[in-house]
Amino acid sequence: MDPINVTADAETFTCNAFLVDGATTTLVDAGAMDGVADVVAAHVDDLDRVVLTHQHGDHVAQLDAVVERFDPDVYAYADQEHRTHELADGDTVAVGDESFDVVYTPGHAADHVSFVSDSTLFSGDVVVYSDGAFDDGSFGRTDMAGQSRERLIESIRLLLDRMPDSVEGFYAGHGEPFHGDVRAVVERALERAERREPKYPEE
Question: Which cofactors, by name (predicted)?
Fold first, then answer.
């Protein structure tokens, strides 16, 4: 699998939105960069579905534009104007040419889900490879209203329980993608979250 980050050239704050071509052409999150639909259209003629990790603004601000352009199915855990399919923990969903398990991973957001196949992890914001706080294993912030460090820690533990050792591709909502020993990276993120120290000095 070789996802395309369609927000890679963004000059404003956005999540990574990943386009996965294949039998079921899918956009993982819609991002907040103006022109996302145009970038998607430059790579594919049709978009079968959008799957949302969660509904923070940086992940869904361009969903209206994507739906208007492509009329895809929209998969989300929580209610959403454009949702056509409700996601639940334990569901399976096709992304590109692979089948992914849906893992409910709240803490950073109450409606957060991650997607795990035999080879690939789309983690949204629950864990990331690199960000401004840590490299090589970090976790989503939990210092804002409605967030919980304890619940995030539980979610990362569950993700590790449900993630096959064969996963080698790691695509998060922020920071760089990673290829290699994904389990080790997620374990480092868990260890750092379990310290229960502020992620950022200003917290």
Answer: Zn(2+)
